[in-house]
Amino acid sequence: MLNPANLRPGCEQHETWTPQGHAKSRVQYDYRADNGDLFSTVAKDLAQARKQRDAWIQRRIEARAAAIERAQAFPMPRARMCDNCGHPLPIGSESDYCTLACEREDRRYREREAEMDRMIDQDH
After folding, report:
1. CB atoms within 10 A of CB 86
2. Which residues are within 8 A (CB) of 99 and not within 5 positions of it... i.e. 6 or more apart?
3. pLDDT digits (tens, 9 = 90+) for 61-88
4. Beta partners for 29?
5. Which residues contact 74 (CB under 8 A, 6 or more apart)?
6. Would you tell me how many other CB atoms lie within 10 Å of the CB of residue 85?
7. What is the C-alpha separation between 96 and 90, in angstroms, rounded?
């Protein structure tokens, strides 16, 4: 009996069996991809099972290529950064600050700067 849990990435296992009441044998085939995904099939023979596996791998490669192509066609917008601390702002944020605390801190900083400017202007 096959146990796919024992199958390492990049390896295959198979066994031939004859279903009860049938004259022709079948092959139970398992293949674990390099990323850990499991492919299992029942086929007439080992060659057919491997052909199905190769088609499965090809579909996965094509799907991955299509996903990359879609991602390149619609690049993610560059994140806006918080005016105070430089952290990325949440997507769709109307504010120029990542948190209310950053906004308050930046406001206090600007107020201190303005006060310093007023003091300098009074001295001259």
Report:
1. 9
2. 82
3. 999 999 988 888 877 777 778 777 777 8
4. 14, 41
5. none
6. 13
7. 10
Q: Are 46 and 59 in contact (CB under 8 A)?
A: no
Structure tokens at 97: 């600050």
Distance, in Å, from the CA atom of 87 to the CA atom of 99, rounded to the nearest integer, reads 10
CA distance 82 to 88: 6
Q: Give the three-class secondary structure for 81.
A: strand
d(CA 94, CA 101): 16
Closest CA to 28 of 42, 39, 18, 38: 42
Query: Which class for 31: exposed (0-12), middle (13-18), buried (19 or more C-beta within 10 A)?
Result: buried
Amino acid identity for residue 9 in this structure: P
42 with 29: CB under 8 angstroms? yes
pTM of the entire predicted model: 0.58
